[in-house]
Specification:
The structure is a single chain. This protein is an alpha/beta fold. The chain is built from 27 helices and 17 strands. The longest helix is centred in the N-terminal third of the chain and has 21 residues. The structure holds thiamine diphosphate (TPP). Thiamine diphosphate binds next to α3.
């Protein structure tokens, strides 16, 4: 590698970066881009965001004294250059792989990762906490920098952080990485404001004049600095506060500056080091910078999968056999179909229209679909408000991001029994994104909420029927959770059918063991049972469909007949579906042995789904192993 990456190959610690000249930094940036593209083309990850902040990352590590100074990345999907420059270059090919480095900053991975992240809009709060603690620890000269995108800034938590930070006199620098896009195009009034602020002639004229005056005053000499400071303050108070949102929140606003001019970034960041108090630097970047296909199509190249590093062509595994659809597409097409028949249906997504396939309805019915920005809390309560007026909102949240809207589900939806349909995409393990993104807590955390129907389809047809059932009158708050990826091959285009709430479906009868599954993992049970048939082991299997209300009739039958019961789910075992079965057993006075398969009580790292299923032991092999264990002495018992 040293031949191709002349400067990059020498950098194993940011201190080595500081030996480079400004011109060499420009070459280094190009090398970093080439390196990221090279690796990510064959080992997929987040591409566009990282390419967009190459210069910013180099400039930050050049100017700051990390890890003593702190960089806090928002979301963290843009931190590849940061990882590569901070000692992880040689490990970067293991990015997002099982036992490899994480695709996000992670405190346990490196002292340079000042704060672990994956969910959006946390950076300002975390950075403020670090800044306040540094002050209390008498390390006030430490530089604390939060880097947040224009998408991340749409999250309410970012504003909670700004609001607080504006009153704390800490050395906090917020860098707004403004590329005018989230995963899909950024939305909302803030987006308009940022465009306005970067293009408004009046605003920029005022700002330039102030900078000009300040430049002159600063040249007068150190004695007049305090006078200059006062003049600056009053000028800004007079002129900027009225026209700048960040100034109004007590931040000193700088920019907008070109985020791809590494020399200028170095110079401005060096200057900002000496300016005390909360500051915001507005940096303009292009997502996917330097890779033309990623610049042209940033949504696809946010996380493109494998691609040809020369042409940008996406590499997809081709199959002659028809493939089952992705659950998310079943959601998208079914919602459109339902909305065509029921004009009260509306669709809501917090910034994931492509990710959850709401874009299918969005294209046809833009007036009945809402991308609300990265704002899960708002999405849920907005849905609740719509529901009070007779609408049936389908609010689609990734399961792990739903955690943001937990109180809203309790307080605004369930307590008021509003007919909001909460569709939880990416429920269960999600693979390479790892512990920040696994959707494994939803069953356990939602199960305790009264009046909430919680369901999980085992296949696409069931998913459609659950969606149909949920929008029928009088159903109330209704959760439908389903995993990432493809379903199984069923005829999912059959006409919709109403399902009975709280009723399970028997898949097979058997004598020795009963297996109760919820959702997609039921397919793993089917696979295991096919094998068990060959072995002559007789297993009964129910697809429970509903975690709440749980099918008590079926549970009575099962507990009366079977002494050995296995539950299978793709969420946490603690408090999950299997726990509901055990609670039932205890309450009704049954005494079978119930073995719960699911996600154990620890955070599951990143890796392929098959790696992680193997680790958790609830795939077909895991189920087989448990059944074998439970039937080990069977032959002996029969002989006796
Ligand atoms: C709470 C939460 N909701 C949704 C997401 C999914 N997500 C990951 S990156 C992203 C867009 C971020 O946009 P921006 O901050 O502008 O960064 P960019 O990708 O443009 O660099 C979204 C919505 C998330 N990580 N966290």
């Amino acid at each position: 590698m040293s031949g191709t990456y002349k400067y990059l190959s020498e950098i194993n610690h940011p201190s080595e970066l500081k030996k480079l000249t400004a011109d060499e930094l420009i070459i280094l940036c190009q090398e970093l881009r080439d390196f990221i593209i090279d690796i990510i083309s064959s080992n997929p990850g987040h591409l566009g965001a990282s390419l967009g902040v190459v210069e910013l990352t180099v400039a930050l590590h050049y100017v700051l004294n990390t890890p003593e100074d702190k960089i806090i990345w928002d979301v963290g999907h843009q931190a590849y250059a940061h990882k590569i420059l901070t000692g992880r270059r040689k490990l970067f090919h293991t990015n997002r792989r099982f036992k490899g480095i994480s695709g996000f900053p992670k405190m346990s991975e490196s002292p340079f990762d000042a704060f672990g992240v994956g969910h959006s809009s946390t950076s300002i709060s975390a950075a403020l906490g670090i800044a306040v603690a540094s002050k209390m620890n008498e390390k006030s000269d430490r530089q604390i920098v939060a880097v947040i995108g224009d998408g991340g800034l749409t999250g309410g938590m970012a504003f909670e952080g700004l609001n607080h930070a504006g009153t704390q006199n800490t050395n906090l620098l917020v860098i707004l990485n403004d590329n005018n896009i989230a995963i899909d195009p950024n939305v909302g009034a803030l987006r308009e404001y940022l465009i306005d602020i970067t293009t408004s002639k009046t605003y920029n004229k005022v700002r330039n004049e102030i900078w000009h005056i300040l430049g002159m005053l600063n040249k007068i000499g150190p004695d007049t600095r305090s006078v200059a400071q006062k003049v600056e303050n009053s000028l800004k108070a007079l002129l900027l506060k009225q026209s700048n949102l960040f100034e109004a929140m007590n931040f000193r606003y700088f920019g907008p500056v070109d985020g791809h001019d590494v020399r200028h970034l170095v110079s401005i960041l060096s200057d900002l080091k000496d300016i005390p108090g909360p500051k915001l630097l507005h940096v303009l970047t292009t997502k996917g910078k330097g890779f033309p296909q990623a610049e042209i199509n940033p949504t696809v190249f946010h996380s493109p999968g494998k691609f040809d590093k020369l042409t940008g062509e996406l590499i997809r595994i081709k199959s002659d056999k028809p493939q089952p659809p992705r659950y998310q597409d079943v959601f998208g097409y079914s919602l459109l179909e339902l909305a065509e028949k029921n004009d009260k249906i509306v669709g809501i997504t917090p910034a994931m229209p492509t990710g959850c396939s709401l874009n299918i309805m969005m294209e046809k019915m833009p007036e009945r679909t809402f991308d609300v920005g990265i704002a899960e809390q708002h999405a849920v309560t907005f849905a609740a408000g719509l529901a009070t007026q007779g609408f049936i909102p389908f609010c689609n949240l990734y399961s792990s991001f739903m955690q943001r809207g937990y109180d809203q589900i309790i307080h605004d939806v369930a307590l008021q029994q509003l007919p909001v349909v909460i569709c939880l995409d990416r429920a269960g393990l999600v693979g390479e994104d790892g512990p920040t993104h696994h959707g494994v807590f939803d069953i356990a955390s939602l199960r305790c909420i009264p009046d909430l129907i919680i369901s999980a389809p085992m296949n696409e047809e069931e998913m459609r029927n659950l969606m149909f059932t949920a929008q029928l009158p009088g159903k109330g708050p209704f959760v439908i959770r389903y995993p990432k990826g493809n379903g199984v091959m069923v005829d999912w285009q059959r006409p919709f059918k109403e399902l009975s709430i709280g009723k399970a479906r028997k898949i097979r009868d058997g004598n020795e063991i009963a297996i109760l599954s919820i959702g997609h993992p039921g397919n793993f049970v089917v696979e295991a049972c096919n094998q068990l048939d060959n072995e002559g082991i007789s297993v009964c299997h129910y697809d429970m469909r509903f975690v709440k209300p749980i099918d008590e009739d079926v549970l009575h039958v099962v507990f009366k007949k079977y002494k050995k019961i296995i539950t299978v789910e793709d969420g946490v075992i603690t408090g999950g579906f299997g726990s509901a079965v055990i609670e039932f057993m205890a309450e009704k006075g049954y005494s079978s042995s119930v073995l719960r398969l699911g996600v154990p009580d620890k955070f599951i790292e990143h890796g392929t789904l098959s790696d992680l299923y193997r680790e958790c032991g609830f795939d077909a092999q895991g189920i087989l192993a448990v059944v074998h264990e439970l039937t080990k002495y069977r032959k002996l018992t029969i002989v006796q």
